[in-house]
Amino acid sequence: MAEDEHEEDDVVRPRPFWSGVIAFGLVSLPVSLFPAVRGKRLSLKMVDDSGTPLSRRYFCEHEQKVLSSDDIVRGYKADEHRYVVVEDKELEELAPEKSQEIDLKRFVPLDEIDPIYFERAYFLVPDGDVTKAYRLLAKSMEDEERAGIATFVMRGKEYLVAIMAERGILRAETLRFHDEVRSPEDIGLPTKKKPAKDAVTRMQKAMKALTEKKLDQDALVDRYTHQVLETVKKKIKTGKDIIKAPEEEAAEYATGDNVIDLMQVLKERLQGKSPAAEDRTVEEHEKKPARKKNHGDGKKHPAGASSKPASLEDVTRDELYERAKELHIPGRSSMSKKQLMDAIRKH
Amino acid sequence: MAARAMWKGVIRFGDVAVPVKLFSGIEDRDVHFRLLHRKDKYPVKQAMVNPETDAIVPYAETKRAFVTDEGDLVMLEKDELDALAPEKSRDIDIMHFLPQHEIDHRWYDRPYYLGPDGAGDEYFAMTAGLESSGMEGLAHWVMRNKEYIGALRVHDGYPMLMSLRHAEEVIPVESLQAPSGKPLDERELSMARQLITMLEANFEPEKYHDEYRERVLEMLEAKQKGRAVKVVPFRKRAPSEDLTAALEASLRSTG
Q: How far is B67 from chain A (nearest CA, A)?
């Protein structure tokens, strides 16, 4: 189930990781989860010699043929020579009861959760313009210094999650399952030996000499990215190795609305700006990349995507969502990319 | 069963050198599928394809490009990028030691246990030193051509390197503003707190199982034997409009 979700990492417009309902007793609170961790600042495109963006596609070595998503099915290796074929629909049907709800049934002391369990962080934003239940839950959890624990299923994976409140904002940390975290015994680390006293003293001295009170955040800078960006800047300055955007495309970029920042979305949604208003911006925005031919990742913006259902897998979730909207497919906002593909195909 | 080390390095600070082995602190338990060609059930390969012509471009002929805000492409040759790659080294440099909690867990990415490489005298002395000082080391190392920043800390009595995310990747909660609105109703707030108290528990990670993973494996087993799989329907809850009523009912049914 761990598959190419990273393909969606550099989607132009931030989409919620999950939308659904937080259940707190009989209080239910519709929310969306947005990542608290952004993708890398540096995303390079793979292009050919002349600068045509390439798409990552599947092909059959046997037939030497590029395949469309309809030609592909998942297989689970049963033994050396046999795969069990599994349809996406079969996987989705296994867990519908948890997929739309995070039920906070237990509240645990904040300091009891060992950070080794933390996997990824998300911010919770209220769905819609009513923020009262959100504020009430955040305030009472913060007062009690407790985190709510629950499980939910999304995109073919079950998540254990801790919901925490800080500064009036609800945050979710997905947690690793206990059997995913190894213990020193699992690894077979040697039994502890009592070290010589003078050896420990020497260590302590060396540590003390390097001790600082505060973390210098410059240490956390991504040096490689900065260096690549430096090289890019130099090339722009000298005009070396630049392929200019075609005119009509340059005009689109010039309007500057081709990137909507995650921060902007978070700020708006936390203040209860309704998702309906947001959807309109998506629509206006999404039309643009669809017209692009040369630039932009070919995988994300296949030419004439809307008339070629065979290449659904090559389309982003955003684009699938737009198409689902045109087709008036119910429940589309909470569907995963796979579910959207399925629904569109069946339509 | 002893795990295999994924990398070997030497922790260095001041005149100290501690040879160590790295072990992943987590175990991947996801169910992995291969993608197959539906027609002949052969595992598929990936290729870079020109979307206009459907022609496969061999990996060695592909180039990297940076897209500017104007939509222009800045071409980068592979050897230009390789030249920027960090230098190979076995050193795990400890730049500073910091009080615990100074390296916020929000930066945490992946845990790696450290085991001794060799006799382990230095290794156990370092562990004892870390434990008694209450400090964590800020580490820097290059593993498999990638640069890492990490926290050197003690977990379960053994030294661990927790790799950290880069500064630009983490959105600080301080940069956001909490939802605002009319002051909360004191009675509702006290009921909500009471409900939390009633649902108090300790964090017992071993109590949670990836039931979905178990069901997937069960289904795969059933499919191999040609049996059918059950499906459970579900209905979505509507948002609560009357908070007071919902809280009162929750307290009644929980208490």
A: 7
